[in-house]
Design goal:
The complex is a heterodimer of chains A (about 170) and B (about 500). Chain A contains 7 helices and 3 strands. A 3-stranded antiparallel sheet of chain A has the order 1-2-3. Chain A has about 170 residues and is mainly alpha-helical. In chain A, strand 1 and strand 2 form a beta hairpin. Chain A folds into 2 domains: about 70 residues; about 70 residues, no CATH class. The longest helix of chain A has 24 residues. Chain B is built from 21 helices and 2 strands. A two-stranded antiparallel sheet of chain B has the order 1-2. Chain B has one domain. The chains are: A mainly alpha (about 170), B mainly alpha (about 500). The interface between A and B is large, with 65 and 64 residues.
């Protein structure tokens, strides 16, 4: 994701268009509009819309301010001081995207295969993905951590978790 | 005012045996430990320990619960500083300068500052309570739905204007939070914004959402780095530097005192403790000669937020004792604990059991002294987080957050919420939308809707009714001023820059 706005030249003038922000703000505005419609559709009574309607309206108005702020003509000084079109380092971007995917996998797999197994696999995979290469650390840290977490939550905190192996703890 | 007979009776009650005091250190440690796990809350810690209450005598139960409460008040600041993860909404303001200090290798000093601020805030509020418990209770009774509504809106707009470089993005984030806070079944009994998912009928699970927005999003940003603190020389945990931070705190007595008094006043209002730290931070920045330093690792930011956080929790205790009204999850569980000992808070309780009220206050004051020592040892241990490689720390914290979320919601709604909000939080962070505004909105959304509805019902649709609420009017004026002043200031700066630009292009 670009950190700095891209600069599109038009005739003799330069405009900075913060496209990622426009896309995100549009997504937010879209959700706000949908939510307001959904609430209205569910029940248009005062009790149901008393906060949602005015706050949604304010949100949609703010959206236009955000968009207006995302398209501007910078001064010469600003152009000179802004670093050239910075993109996130490819390696870091891959690691962040991979971390997000693995988090999603843990969330979905935990209740299905048990948090004991899912935690072990996730810890091992994530540590290896982030650069851990010591085999003993890769094996024992996730193992000890998984056992400790399941024991603490299951026994000490009396919080039942879905597990596959450590059933005695819950 | 101070009832000397009751005070002496309270001292007699507390000094009758040393044994109940044996639970102070375990209580404080549990409070501190619980908040080192993202997703776990004070109310959860208190709730888990509730089954122990019937096995304790009254005094022991009282001291145990208040010790846990005291520990948790400070505990929330530790992950806020070290990991940018506020243990609760009350520590959001602490992240603003605490985490930049940690990233700059000043984690020891930041933790020392927070410890002193927390102890100071608690001492101030409990001293105030000792003398003014009755009048505070009477004042709290005058606050109704209109005041609470204005307070909620004030919190959201304040945080929206306070953080980030773009006012419109801050306010949009606040609006988003407010709306997200109302998702679920409405007062009319109809589901809104649930996408037909049953798990969302009760609304978006707030704690997992907060942990996702703050913690997970920040952890994604740390991916690719070796340590939280890059510089090896700065990656040290030294008691002497924690002490230096503690000494530094006393150079800013005015900031601490202002934060403590603000927090005490706001904390008595239901939901107030969530925004007391933000209002205090905002006020400290407003009166500072160099406000631009706030947000970059300024000790005054940590002190302002932390003193208000600590004192607001004491304020919540005042409302609990004086009115029998819990103003948050933690005080709600304490109310249950009190009732297990056949004690119910409220005006008659204040009148008939003033000795017990004073005993609670004095026990808290004594626990602050213990907290200073135990907290010091705890932060010394917690400071070693900066020495752990991020490739171990990131998966560890994320796993704890996911399991903590599951434990909190007892179903998959918690972990899914965490994951979704982690991604949203990361994008917001990248695009300079203040995540804090969305969090405060999310926290206050449902309450704001309820208070607006009750205000409407009280007024019968006649908005002239608001003119009969002077406290609400004053708060509304403050809301407008705190929103418009930064706007006017930024417009003036923009106009000045525009003038310079014009001169630059025409010279």
């Amino acid at each position: 994701m670009p950190d700095a706005p891209s600069i599109n030249e038009s005739a003799d003038r330069k405009f900075a268009v913060d496209m990622p922000n426009i896309l995100f703000a549009t997504a937010l505005a879209g959700w706000i509009a949908w939510y307001c419609w959904d609430a209205w559709h569910a029940n248009s009574a005062m009790e149901n819309m008393i906060l949602i309607l005015p706050v949604s309206t304010a949100g949609l108005l703010l959206y236009f301010f955000v968009i207006a702020g995302s398209i501007k003509r910078p001064s010469l000084a600003e152009i000179q001081s802004t670093p050239p079109h910075e993109l996130m380092d490819r390696g870091v971007a891959i690691k962040i995207a991979g971390s997000m995917a693995m988090l999603a996998a843990l969330v979905l797999a935990g209740p299905l295969i048990g948090f004991d197994v899912a935690t072990f696999v996730y810890m091992l995979g994530m540590m290896a993905f982030l650069g851990e290469r010591r085999i003993l650390v890769l094996l024992f840290f996730p193992l000890l951590f998984s056992v400790a977490v399941i024991y603490c939550f299951g026994t000490l905190l009396a919080t039942p978790l879905p597990v596959l192996i450590f059933r005695g703890q819950n | 005012m101070l009832d000397l007979h009751a005070l002496i009776a309270a001292l007699h009650l507390l000094g009758s045996s040393w044994q109940p005091w044996a639970v102070v250190i375990p209580g404080i440690l549990i409070g501190l430990l619980i908040h080192s796990v993202p997703g776990l809350t004070t109310s959860m810690a208190l709730a888990i320990c509730l089954p122990l209450i019937p096995y304790m005598n009254f005094l022991q139960a009282l001291i145990f619960m208040t010790a846990m409460y005291a520990g948790s008040v400070f505990g929330v600041a530790i992950p806020a500083i070290l990991l940018n993860v506020p243990g609760s909404a009350a520590a959001v303001g602490t992240t603003f300068d605490g985490f930049p200090m940690a990233k700059a290798g000043k984690h020891n000093e930041a933790l020392g500052l927070a410890l002193v601020a927390s102890c100071f805030g608690q001492v101030v509020v409990y001293l105030l309570l000792l003398g003014l418990a009755g009048p505070i209770g009477a004042f709290a009774l005058k606050l109704g739905p209109p005041e609470m509504l204005v307070l909620s809106l004030w919190g959201v707009t304040l945080i929206g204007t306070l953080s980030g470089r773009h006012l419109s993005r801050g306010l949009l984030a606040g609006v988003l939070g407010l709306l997200l806070g109302t998702v679920g079944v409405s007062a009319r009994g109809v589901p809104r914004g649930t996408f037909g998912i049953d798990l969302l009928l009760d609304g978006i699970p707030v704690v997992p959402a907060i942990v996702g927005l703050f913690a997970a999003a920040e952890l994604f940003n740390l991916v690719g780095r070796e340590y939280i603190v890059d510089n090896l020389a700065q990656r040290q945990v030294k008691a002497i530097r924690i002490l230096a931070g503690m000494r530094e705190a006393f150079r800013h007595k005015t900031v601490m005192l202002r934060g403590a008094i603000l927090g005490s006043c706001i904390g008595i209002i239901p939901g107030g403790h969530a925004i007391a730290n933000l209002l205090s931070y905002s006020e400290a920045r407003r009166v500072a000669k160099d406000p631009e330093k706030f947000g970059t690792g300024d000790p005054r930011g940590v002190l302002a937020a932390e003193t208000a956080n600590a004192s607001s929790e004491g304020g919540s205790m005042a409302t609990l004792l004086a009115l029998g009204i819990p103003t948050g999850g933690a005080t709600a569980v304490m109310l249950v604990a009190f009732s297990m000992q056949n004690i119910t808070g409220g005006p008659s309780f204040m009148r008939d059991h003033a000795d017990i009220v004073y005993a609670v206050i004095l026990a808290n004051l004594a626990q602050v002294a213990v907290l200073a020592v135990v907290g010091f040892a705890f932060i010394f241990a917690a400071g070693f987080v900066v020495k752990v490689r991020l490739r171990l720390l990131v998966p560890t914290i994320l796993t704890l957050a996911v399991i903590g979320s599951y434990a909190l919601s007892h179903d998959i709604a918690g972990p899914i919420t965490l994951a979704v909000f982690a991604i949203i939080g990361w994008i917001m962070h990248k695009l300079d939308y203040p995540v804090q505004a969305a969090v405060v909105g999310l926290l206050l959304g449902r309450g704001a809707e309820g208070n607006l509805l009750r205000t409407y019902q009280m007024s019968g649709g006649n908005f002239g009714f608001l003119l009969t609420r002077p406290i609400a009017i004053v708060m509304f004026i403050l809301l407008v001023a705190s929103t418009t002043l930064p706007l006017v200031r930024s417009m003036r700066t923009a106009a000045r820059k525009g003038k310079l630009k014009w001169n630059e292009e025409h010279s």
